[in-house]
Write a structure and sequence with these properties.
Elements (H helix, E strand, L loop, with lengths): L2 H6 L7 H23 L5 H29 L2 H28 L3 H10 L1
């Protein structure tokens, strides 16, 4: 079964593979956010942290919102809801990648918000 099929499969929120992915992204976020807050600006650690956050945030959000779809969206609308959710998570990942590669990065962008 392809990855796309697994992501759009009905009631995927309860699947063991998806829950493991959610756990890994949770641990990554718990470790990376403090590193991002204290990493020196423009260093290699900051770049690696930004790139990892750019993957972990959309994955974590996608899996969590898939559980919300399973719990609260009627079965007739779940496929369309999951497709929209996958599109939103993909756009977020692409946006984070663009911000990290061509811009100041996630960490610096958040720090700039707090400075101004």
């Amino acid at each position: 079964m392809s990855v796309l099929t697994k992501l759009l499969k009905p009631d995927i929120a309860g699947g063991p593979e998806t829950f493991k992915l959610y756990e890994y992204s949770h641990v990554a976020l718990a470790g990376l956010v403090p590193i991002a807050a204290f990493a020196p600006e423009g260093g290699a650690l900051s770049k690696v942290t930004d790139l990892t956050l750019g993957v972990a945030i959309p994955v974590h959000s996608h899996v969590a919102m898939n559980a919300v779809v399973t719990d609260y969206v009627p079965k007739a609308f779940r496929g369309a809801s999951r497709a929209g959710l996958l599109a939103a998570a993909s756009l977020a990942a692409i946006g984070f990648l663009r911000l990290n590669v061509f811009g100041p990065g996630i960490t610096q962008s958040v720090k700039d918000l707090w400075r101004h």
